[in-house]
Amino acid sequence: MLLISGIRISFEEPNEAAVEKACSTLNISDADISSFRLRKLSYDARHGTLTKVCSVILELRNPLDEKKLAGTIRNATLYSPVEFSLRPGKNPMDSRPVVVGFGPAGMFAALALAEYGYRPIVLERGQDADSRKEKVAQFYSSGTLDQNSNVQFGEGGAGLFSDGKLTTRTNDVLCDYVLRTFTEHGADDKIIYEAKPHLGSDVLADIVKRIRGRIIGLGGEVRFESRVDDIAVRAGRLVSLTTGRERIPVQLAIFAVGHSARDMTSLLMKRGADVTAKSFAVGLRIEHLQSDIDRSLWGKNAGNPLLPKGEYALSTTYGGRPVYTFCMCPGGSVVAAASGRGEVVVNGMSSSLRDGRNANGAVVASVDESEFGGDPLLCTAFQAGLEQEAYRMGGGLYAAPASDVGSFLGGKAGLKSGRVEPSYPLGVTAADLGKLLGPQLADSIRFGILEFSDKIRGFDSEDAILTGVESRTSSPVRVLRREDRQAIGIENLYPCGEGAGYAGGIMSSAVDGLRTAAAIIEKYRPAKG
Questions:
Q1: Domain 98-276+477-521 class in CATH
Q2: How far is the C-alpha of 315 from the C-alpha of 322, rounded, in Å?
Q3: Whether the model pTM is above 0.90
Q4: Is the model's pLDDT at 72 over the cut of 90?
Q5: Radius of gyration of the chain (CA)
Q6: CATH match of 2-78 with 3.30.70.2700
Q7: Cα dist. 411→319, 446, 462 in Å?
Q8: For the chain, which residues make up each domain, given as ranges?
């Protein structure tokens, strides 16, 4: 196959025009092609003319022509789809592998194990996707929080209520495999080629349930409401897990518990795992009118149904501290993402259509582990302290502290009525968000908002709304592991994903889960019986 990149066409032209232009570039005809597909699609409005920038994959009828053209035509290279192909190892496995956590890392680890005949047992502290959505709806309507089944915990992980974004900064070749897996379980094929693919929180639940069905159909087992309360380690080796009153002997277990499972971090440290602090970020979620973001990005073409909803990813530094936007949700809403009582945490989500009135995104400032002496428990305590203070400033019942941007930039409390209405579902209370964050972080975010307005016109609009606190951008800790992916300090325990500090988002978490499962598959053969 040939990959031809850098093809530019008008944003109003159909995607097939990119294939025609690729053929013209290669000086070949339709008759020379046996198949084609779009590989990547993005939009470029930087030079005054809005264009689509495409990459196209062509399969020629004569493979020798592919090799010839790849060597002579600029922007044409040979391409082969990535396969997840492994050779099972020979070491005996006496019992089925256990996967703790059923977010992206745990899900893809379990799927890989199931595909190769290992019949994994999955333990998930939260509920299945449908029951979990009911619990979240109950929380939003009454303020009654289930600490094990909420926006953070349950089938699908935190990503289930966060737009299902599939953008990633990792270049791992398995990203293509992850995307194909999603399409095989019901996702739109466009996620394969979109530069910023997403599934939508309304669609992701059904995809996740189909993946669960695949795992079960291959002999795996998924147990919900099965929180791991303790682990037993003997001579530095994991020997059992305890869930409720049940003790489960294990030969090995993958721990993919997510970035909010602070109790698991403490447990692993207590049982001998080597856990260290890492950098993380905290800040606020900002809301604008989506129409304002569209106008800033697309200009006179804003509102054209051929264009996607405008989104941004911005970064700067303030006094050496990175400041950036995170998890931007076009046409979405702010989510109440607490997982512990007496804490307020915000996140964002969009439906697959992204047709809400507001756009929202996190504006966060990086916190270095050195600011806490490298102590992982101090890092998690700082996170929790911010969330508890946000709860107090919101006035209780999980209302969130909020401010209009004008008041925040002016260093005071204020929530003036304007064009933008806050979408946080449990209500907001006017607050001085600078006092919530402290002077260093608050000044960093103020600087970022002003800087970002140079890229997105109106980003610093006085009637934009800020809601706090955005504190779960990533895990503040890392469970150290060896090259074979076993935890340092506890053999046969395989930490992976966001909670272990090795990923950030659905894609990188899924890839880390696959890589971790591969380490097991290539070492062991499936247990008999």
A1: alpha beta
A2: 7
A3: yes
A4: no
A5: 24
A6: yes
A7: 19, 9, 13
A8: 2-78, 98-276+477-521, 279-470
